[in-house]
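One-letter codes give the sequence; the fold follows as tokens. Both lines appear below.
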Amino acid sequence: MTISVLLADDQALIRAGFAVLIDSAPDMQVVGQAGDGAEAVALARTTKPDVVLMDIRMPGVDGLAATGRITGDSTLPDVHVIVLTTFEDDEYVIEAIQRGASGFLGKNVDPAVLLDGIRVVAGGDALLSPKATTALVARLAAAPAPSGSAPATAHDPDRVFSVLTDREREIVALVAHGLSNDDIAAHLVLSPLTVKTHVHRAMSKLDARDRAQLVVLAYRSGLVDTGRNRRL
């Protein structure tokens, strides 16, 4: 199966470089290039790519607004956005995730990491780069959520997460702390496949688009807090 990718960056040279790299991968194909957010949204609607590589700072409609429009479009449920940024602790990255982005990478990322990241997101998982620290994830709770951008919460973990089993609730809390499926499996003495199954069931029950939104929901509902105290 070929992964279709849409590139959105206002610098033609950067787009060209990414296009050459992505098209060189046997399992990927660039299906469109956009120079601003409005064009990215329009192309996403016509090409319906698996993944959009979205620059944040673009003229007119920027990457944040474009990300929200794409992830909020009911006709594009399978389109996932990876935000590209110069600084991986950029405050705008937080808003991008709140607007539905599936993760982010720095523009200076190693080519192999970028390609692997595209595959991860195309498979429905969230992508948080190695430099995404716990403090960065915790800031999701403090930043205001754009209207309609993330799953609604009642700020009451007992009510929001009542649809989950105790195990699913425990795993969601660990996901919110930045643990990978392998990390969680080792911590709970489970198989990675079992953990993955629990994560996907939790996402389905909570109507979370992907793992990144699951993190947002966990912090915003109070299931976990910035002090890393889990409420299980």
About this structure: Residues 3-132 form a domain with the Rossmann fold fold (CATH 3.40.50.2300). The first helix runs from residue 12 to 24. The chain has two domains: 3-132, 153-221. The chain has eleven helices and six strands.
